[in-house]
Amino acid sequence: MFGYVTIEQPELKIREYETYRSYYCGLCHTLKTDHGRMGQLSLSYDMTFLVMLLTGLYEPETAYFTSRCITHPGSKHAFRTNSFSHYAADMNILLYYDKCMDDWADEKKLSRFLYARAIRRNYKKVVKRYPEKASVVQEKLKALSDAELKGETNLDYVSGLFGEIMAEMFVYRKDEWEDKLRRTGYYLGKFVYLADAYEDLPEDIKTGSYNPLKRMQGDPGFESYISHLLTLLMSECTRSFEILPILQDVEILRNILYMGVWHRVNLARAKAASVPADNASPQKETK
Q: Total structural domains in the chain?
């Protein structure tokens, strides 16, 4: 459920793309300094969006510098970091650790257990800094795991659990913007959960893995319904976002919310459209 909240690069100006990359690289740098090389591996576009959103809203003092890194050793490139880079890095560790432990408990994925173990010390530090947020993430991921094990088909419920996780992470402090940030994160989280389910549906049907969309796949109006549902969720997300008094880099943020989040959905839709009808029908699950 990661990697959806990113840019639509062809629609950005060169300057805007360079600005976005500087925040992305800044978050990567912060993950390394705050949580080490293993923490750095959890880098995501999703949390880069959070850094830029909170930066645009609260306008903190931001450091700008150029440097080389292990990924791009040939030339220097730009980094931007501020207090929200550190906050997003902590939230990244919080979410990745708990998600990895859930995957280990539910599916015995050894790689997830080993990664969680590698960042456990850093995770404990984040829990001490943000005990309330840690409690919400743990509670909602546990409820989501239980729902998936039971084969829950209520889309509003399961997507809402991930939405509540994102909502909690979007709220940096309790102030006049808390409600709008929470709603933006909530509906974005619901969108991401269902977009991920839609993208994974063909593979989940083959493997017999849980997917809340399985019962609907093959219905005549399935594609139209999913398109309408995802559009509705992003409409609610952007409705709250547009109320926030953000001017700094707002066009980049809009690029992400109005175009970037749809990139993988559109690829999955195009792939589904290219599959012959006989092959697209759901397979019976073996009991």
A: 1
